[in-house]
């Protein structure tokens, strides 16, 4: 599978629902972004069950701001519509493969329980 260009119009439908989504926030002028791009592309080719999206922060400034992107590249991982990983910096192939394995191994029932607890604590007086 190839990567998808993600825009403000497509972000919600991309990250919602079941499955895993990896988003690469990048810009053409960014050297580390250019070095990470082939790593991301190889992972996309090897993991056809995952959605690999690329967000051009220059073209999609409103989307980058909504996700509070302050450094690029930034990689985000969503599983079943829940943000489970966010980190700036270029990853090597082994690091990205390890991240993918970790996200696959998550107990999503436990993740949903933790999210519900965090929301309840935030709403408490």
UniProtKB/TrEMBL annotation:
Alphabetized UniProt keyword annotations: Disulfide bond, Electron transport, Redox-active center, Transport
Annotated protein name in UniProt: Thioredoxin
Family: Belongs to the thioredoxin family.
PANTHER family: GEO12009P1 (PTHR45663), THIOREDOXIN 2 (PTHR45663:SF40)
InterPro entries: Thioredoxin, Thioredoxin-like_sf, Thioredoxin_CS, Thioredoxin_domain
Taxonomic superkingdom: Bacteria
Entries under NCBIfam families matching the protein: thioredoxin
Domain Thioredoxin: 1-105
CDD domains, per the entry: TRX_family
